[in-house]
Specification:
A: about 110 residues, Udp-n-acetylmuramoylalanyl-d-glutamate--2,6- Diaminopimelate Ligase, Chain: A, domain 1, 5 helices, about 20% strand, B: about 140 residues, alpha+beta, Heat Shock Protein 90, 5 strands, about 35% helix, DRTGG (chain A), Ser_kin/Pase_Hpr-like_N_sf (chain A), DRTGG domain-containing protein (chain A), nucleotide-binding (chain B)
Chain lengths: ~110, ~140
Amino acid sequence: MKISEIIKVLNASIACGEAYIETNIERGFASDLMSDVLTLDTDKMILITGLANMQTIRTVEMADVQCILFVRNKQISEDMLKLAQEHNMVLLQCKYSMFNAVGKLYQAGLEPVY
Amino acid sequence: MEFVYEVEGGDFTKAGNASSAVKKTLKQLNVNPKVVKRIVVALYEAEVNIVAHAYNGTIKVTINSEHIHIVLDDKGPGIPDIDLAMQEGYSTASSKVREMGFGAGMGLPNMKKNVDELNVSSEVDKGTTVEMITYL
């Protein structure tokens, strides 16, 4: 599933990384615990989270994840945006709850990591 | 070659700066991306631990053709029972640390999983030393 389709399914807004929205994403992982994200070894993955701080961006940098979806209308700070842009990440925001966003993406064909 | 980074306890805005710099260096040295990921995940967990628990610390990274050797040395409260701290799910992290997405007792087990050798030594009220070795 392309990032552009994820945007459509969730009526999401894009904070940065417009140039990469045709990138293919195969799996989704939803977590507010960054240590759990750091246990994964999965390519072409999107992180779905309600945790919006610098450690979210740092975690996906270390885990080689390119795209983050922030749910529950969480806001992205200037510092987060700057760091994400430095690493060519795509940051998305949507107003849905985690459960709702994950349900919609699963229904649209996004696979789980496990 | 050798690199040294300073880490300040309690400052979460900078947590990960050293790991990020190491990642950049390893990529420039053309180290296998899968190996780079394992090393920086372990290092990042360890760096977050210094920020979360210690007053300050240093990270020393030594790279040669055979291995990548990282030593994290902190001044802090130390770990009274290292075996207990190594258990998945055991944590003494504050609510502030948990708000940052850590503190679920996964850090040390995560480090162990991602490096070839992990040695932890600690003295209560003095500090902790974490040594991580990855063979190339």
